[in-house]
Amino acid sequence: MIGGNMSEHAAVNFANEAFYLAFSTRDLEAMDALWARQAPVTCIHPGWSALKGRDAVMESWQAILSNPNSPAVDCRNSVAHMFGDVGYVICYETLDQGILVATNIFVREEGTWKMIHHQAGATESVPEEDGDWDPADTVQ
Amino acid sequence: MIGGNMSEHAAVNFANEAFYLAFSTRDLEAMDALWARQAPVTCIHPGWSALKGRDAVMESWQAILSNPNSPAVDCRNSVAHMFGDVGYVICYETLDQGILVATNIFVREEGTWKMIHHQAGATESVPEEDGDWDPADTVQ
C-alpha cells in the first residue's frame, strides 16, 4: 500500500516503476491492473499506430508479454511531472536492441495512480546525470 | 479569441492546431507563445533525448524553425483526451520523410490551453478513418 505521506511525485514514480516491473517480468495480470479502468486509455508502441481503448491496449500487452522474443527492458532516469490528479513521467527504456525514451501519463483513479497513456520511441542514449532535474526549478 | 461555449476538447484541439500552424509556418514567436510559462515544459523530438525546461525546448524550436532543411509538417487525426485542467492530444504528423505519431500535453494556464510536452516518434502510416473515435465511448 502506498503510504499517505508519500509525495505525489513519488507515488507516480512508484506507479511508473510498477509498469516496468510488470513489463520486465512478463506479468500480464499486473500490467492489466495498473492501466486505468474508468478513464479511456491509449498506447503507442515504437513504430506502431496509436492504440485506443482498453481492449486494444491490453491485447497488445498480451501479445508482447507472451512473446519470448520480446526484449527485456530496464527503466532509467524517471522524472515525474505533476498537475493535480494527472501526472506524466519521462524516462528511458534500455533494451538489448537499443534505447527508447517514453512518456507515461497517469491519473488518480479511486485514490490510486493508474496509467492512461504510454508512448515510447527510439533515442540515441540515456543522458548522464539526468535524474536530479527538478521540474519545479524551472517554474517562472 | 476562443469562445466561451467552445468545448474543452475543441479548445485543446485548437491549441494543438496552433502548434502545427506555428511549426509549418516557421513562426517562432507563435511557437514561443503557445508553450506554458508557469508550468515546466519538456519536449522529445524524434530520435532526440528529452529536453527539459523552457530554455532548452525553445532553443530546439529556434534551431528547427530557422533551418531551411526542416521538414514541412501536416497534422492528421487529432483526438483530444481531457482530464480537468490537463488534456493530451494524439495525432499523426505527415512529413515528406515519413509519418510520425505524437503525444502533445496541454494545461490550462490563466484560462488558455498551453503546451507542456510534445513527443513525436516514427510510425508506419496514418490509420484510415481514425478521427471519429470518441474517448468517452470507452469509459466503463
Could you tell me the strand content of chain A as a percent range? 35-45%
Biggest interface goes to: A-B, 46 and 46 residues
The name of the CATH topology of chain A is: Nuclear Transport Factor 2, Chain: A
Indicate the CATH architecture of chain A: Roll
Helix tally of chain A? Answer: 3
Task: Please outline what is shown here.
By secondary structure, chain A is of the alpha+beta class. Helices cover 26% and strands 35% of the residues of chain A. The interface between A and B is large, with 46 and 46 residues.
Question: Please, could you describe this protein's structure?
Answer:
The structure is a homodimer of 140-residue chains. With 140 residues, the first copy, chain A, is α+β, with helices and mostly antiparallel strands. The first copy, chain A, has a single domain, classed as Nuclear Transport Factor 2, Chain: A, CATH 3.10.450.50. The first copy, chain A, has helices spanning 8-24, 28-34, 54-66; strands at 42-44, 51-52, 74-83, 86-95, 98-109, 112-123. Chain A has a 6-stranded mixed sheet with strand order 2-1-6-5-4-3, with helices on one face. The first copy, chain A, is globular. At the A-B interface, β3, β4, β5 and β6 of A face β3, β4, β5 and β6 of B.
How are the SSEs placed, and which strands pair?
The structure is a homodimer of 140-residue chains.
Chain A: H1 8-24, H2 28-34, E1 42-44, E2 51-52, H3 54-66, E3 74-83, E4 86-95, E5 98-109, E6 112-123
Parallel strand pairs in A: 1-6
Antiparallel strand pairs in A: 1-2, 3-4, 4-5, 5-6
